[in-house]
Structure formats: structure tokens, C-alpha cells
Amino acid sequence: MDKFFLLPLLSLLIIAYGVSGSIDPESDIDMVKELETFDIEEQDDNVVDTYAIPVWKSERGSRSLMNVDSFDAVGDGITDDTMAFRKAWETACSAAKSVLLVPKEKRYLVNATTFKGPCNDGMIIQIEGTIIAPDEPEKWDPKLPRQWLEFTKLNAATFQGDGVIDGSGEKWWAESCKKNKSRPCKGAPTALTIDSSSNIRVKGLTIQNSQQMHFTIARSETVRITEVRVSSPGDSPNTDGIHITQSMNVVVQNCKISTGDDCISIVNASSGIKMKGISCGPGHGISIGSLGKDNSAGIVSKVVLDTAFLRETTNGVRIKTWQGGSGYVRAIRFENVRMQDVENPIIIDQFYCDSPNACETQTSAIKVSQIMYRNISGTTTSKNAMKFACSDSVPCSNIILSNVNLEKTDGTVETYCHAAQGFGYGVVHPSADCLTSSDNDFAAKDQTQLPTEQHIVHTEL
Fold first, then answer.
1. Would you say residue 60 lies in a domain?
2. Residue 21: phi, psi to the nearest 5?
3. Can you tell me the mean pLDDT for 197-202?
4. Where are the alpha helices (DSSP H) in 21-123?
5. 173 in a domain, yes or no?
6. 151 located within any domain
7. What is the pTM of this model?
8. Which GO terms describe its biological process (predicted)?
């Protein structure tokens, strides 16, 4: 950070907080500097570079081609090709420099399957055709209730192509308790899962109409996802676009996501996550969380969203935690984000309650701190353009706003704060002066606005 910028910022901090003595300006300058400069590399030399190698087209090339058709796959969209895919996988997994090819202009019906490694490093999964899931929930394999296509224990593997992974999720959505109140709430399969893997690249694929979540990265590290498209209707329940859990060093870049839940969700034990060039909408925005459900621990740190466009989503950039959790969310930077008709452009919600029943009031909470919002602009459909609803017992701290400008086309906008501390510099509209006030100060100004645990309950049902 430029030293000439630090001097006025330091003065601002002293003016804003010097009277209360609640923060140390020097330490906060260090925090701002760290939040503004930390980053995650978008490319990694340890990942096998295979994108420019077209040898998968030829069996005489330097790679071994395993075409699923050579293992008796039919590709008519009716015949069950599961066994052909499994055989092709086993052969490709054990071969050096192999390419597993799903040919274009065909539709392959494949049942729930785990494609297990370890395999030889440098394997390419080239998807040019369409892989479709069975569309009847009653006929789903009960041994694999939460997955469709799962790839596990891979290293230096690449998933690429212009093909489609189609979860055929319409009947699953109709059975969801969020659409049919008479049905019990239960999980459904994730279309594509990469688990317990490292040095993975995914490029160019389309994942659509998932039964529930579209694409999950779990217990993995050094993953690069580029130019992936996720698509499902805006009313499809729980269909998160890209879900990251227990993973490190993940980059999601130049992806277009339209779905019925979070476009991207980042949950427990994830760190070093970068999202860049993201288009989101419809959907529920880009979220950290939810965390802390059922009194669980949750930790997420070092997350960057740089350059995104969100259109007609229910949330913009969101952090959501349940009451009763423990752990922390910290060192997060949301920047260069444009919103268009977003209901909640900037929101921290520590009273998240995705349940048909009211959630129990609890005092413990996940600590949310060191959150930066920089260069955020656009329009909102709600009165509260910014909302910081934090725990009374574990308040949010060090929320930083810089160059934020949010407008409502047919009215004025406000900032809502509860148990939240922070500051802004540069343009901040609407004003976030409530961040610098304690709840007692806020109550003294307007007793009618003092929030209570009973009515700060948020649900997506």
C-alpha cells in the first residue's frame, strides 16, 4: 500500500476510534494493508499443463486414448452405459498418460458411480458429449444417496471439454420439502464431486440441472476451475453451483453460474480460495457458509472475490452462520463487484436459520472479523443495501468498507447494523456510521430500532 495513502487512513482511524480507544490504529493499518494485498496465485506450475495438447484425438499420439465407446458404451441416452464407463475408467486409471474420452454428439446414461484413484499422474478426462443421470429418484442406488459422479484420490488430473454433465434433477426438485411441504427434508445427490485430490484442473465443462448441488470440491488442494458453466432454474432447491469444503488453494475463474441456491458456497476448513471473473444470477449470491449448524465448529479464512457481476440474485456477497457455532471467518476480501437488482448486496447474517421451524436462541457464535468490501457498486431492490446482523455475545469486528456505492432505483437505501464494528474510507453509500457505534449508542439514538434475538431470524424456506 502506498505510504501516502496510509497517512490519511491513519488519521481517519484515529478520528473514528481515538475517543473510544477500542482499537489500535497501527494494528488496524497493518490489517488493512494485509487485506488489500493478500492474494492466491491463479496459476500453479505444479499442475500438469495439458490444455494445449490435442493428442486425445488420435490413438497414435503420445497418449493412450480410452474411448468409452470402445468399452461398449452406446450413447443413445436410454441404454445404461454405467459398466462401460467403469471399465474405461479402470483401464485409463492404470495406464500412463491416458485420456478417457466421452465422444461428442452422444448422450450417455450413467448411474451413481465412484471413480476411484489413485491413478497415474497426468490423466485427462475429456468430456465432449453429454452424460445424463437417471431421472427417477425412486430408482437411485441407495448405497450412494448423496452422489452421482464422484472422482476421488486423484493427482495431477485434468477434466476438460465442451461436454455437458446433466443431473436430470426435475423430479428431485419436485420431491424437495422446499417445493412440496408434505415431503420430508432430505439430501439429494451432487452431480459432480472431486474428493481427496490434488493438482486438479477443470476447464470448459457445463454442469446443469443437478439433483442438488452441481459441483463440489471436497478435501482437496490446488484446484483450478476455469470457464465452467453451471445452469439450473432459479427455483430449483439447494442447487448450489460450486461448493467448496475442507479444501485449500482453490481458484474459480471466468465461470458463469445460474442456479437456485448459492452460485458459489465456501464452508468449513477451507482456506486460500480465490474467485475471479464470476457471473452469478439467478441464485442466492456468493456465500461463505453456512457455518456452525448443530453447534458445530467452522473455520474459513483467506478468501478473495475479485471481479464479479451479480444480477437479480437474492444476495450479493454473504457470510452466513447459525447460532450456537464456534470457530471463525476472517481475512476475507470482496472487491470489484457490480450488482444489478440484488436484494441483499452486502450481508453478514449470524442468525441464519434454514429450517421450517424457528431456531433456538443461543449465545455462542462463529467469530466474524477482518472482512473487506472494496469497489462494490450497483442497485438493490431492498431498503437495506448493507446488513450486518451479528451476534451479541460474539460481535463482528474489523469490517472495512472502501468505495461502496449502492442505490435503489425507487427509493433511499440504508445500512443495518447489530453488534458490528468497523469503518469505511473513500465513498461509502449508504453511510455505514452504525458500524462505529456500540449497540447501546444505537439504542440511545432510536430505541425502536434496537434488534432483538426473537426477530433476527432469517430463513430461505
1. yes
2. 65, 20
3. 98
4. 25-37, 82-94
5. yes
6. yes
7. 0.89
8. carbohydrate metabolic process; cell wall organization
pLDDT tens-digit map of 11-58: 444 344 433 334 455 667 788 888 888 888 886 444 444 333 344 444
User: CA distances (Å), 211 to each of 230, 307, 446, 461, in order?
Assistant: 13, 29, 47, 18
Q: What is the pLDDT of residues 409-434, one digit of tens each?
A: 889 999 999 999 999 999 999 999 99
Is 379 a domain residue? no
Kindly report, residue by residue over 393-407, the tens digit of the pLDDT: 999 999 999 999 999
Catalytic residue, candidates 284, 418, 429, 455: 284
C-alpha cell at 197: 485430490
Active site residue 455: no
Distance between CA atoms of residues 358 and 241, nearest Å: 27
Domain count, the chain: 1
Q: What is the mean pLDDT of the chain?
A: 88
Q: pLDDT value at position 42?
A: 81
- 334 forms beta bridges with 305, 373
Burial 295-307 (b: 16+ CB within 10 A, else e): eeebbbbbbbbbe
Check if the beta carbon of residue 66 is closer than 8 Å to that of residue 88: yes
Q: 41: which DSSP letter? A: -
d(CA 399, CA 418): 12
Which domain CATH number covers 73?
A: 2.160.20.10
Q: Which domain holds residue 189?
A: 47-261
pLDDT at residue 26, rounded to an integer = 66
Task: Return the amino acid letter for 402.
Answer: S
- Whether the per-residue pLDDT at 202 is higher than 60: the answer is yes
| Residues ≥6 apart with Cβ < 8 Å to 400 | 32, 35, 370, 371, 372, 373, 374, 422, 423, 424, 425
Report the distance separating Cα 314 and Cα 285, nearest Å. 7
- Residue 175 CA to residue 407 CA, distance in Å, equals 38
Longest pairwise C-alpha distance within the chain: 79
Give the distance from CA 328 to its chain's centroid: 17
Nearest residue to 315 via CA among 251, 262, 369, 374: 262
